[in-house]
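User: I'm writing a tutorial on reading structure tokens. Could you give me a worked example: one chain, its sequence, then its tokens, then a sentence or two explaining what the tokens reveal?
Assistant: Sure. Here is the example chain.
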Amino acid sequence: MTWALTASAIMLSLCLSISLYFNYKFGLILINLEDGIEESLDILDKKYASISKILERPVFFDSVEVRQVIREIKDSREAILYVANILGSIDESAVEELEKNKA
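And here are its predicted structure tokens:
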């Protein structure tokens, strides 16, 4: 009877260890995802503020302001691409780690 209790205690300890390991890994993935989102939102917020300042000025056709707005729109597009790459790389690395652990 005691050997059965010992065996089940060992088995439960093993299951707990595996569970704690994966909880830790998933927690790190979530923290990295949150950091990526916060960094992305900071970039987009700076670009939004910059575009808002430029839009407050009167704009004339083919003026410096128009060129600045076009440049800021291009930078915003690049920022959105950067955000997508950050979020995509976090997702890809998480999937790769899960596949390695299954093998």
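What the tokens reveal: The two ends are 36 Å apart (CA to CA). The chain has a mean pLDDT of 80.
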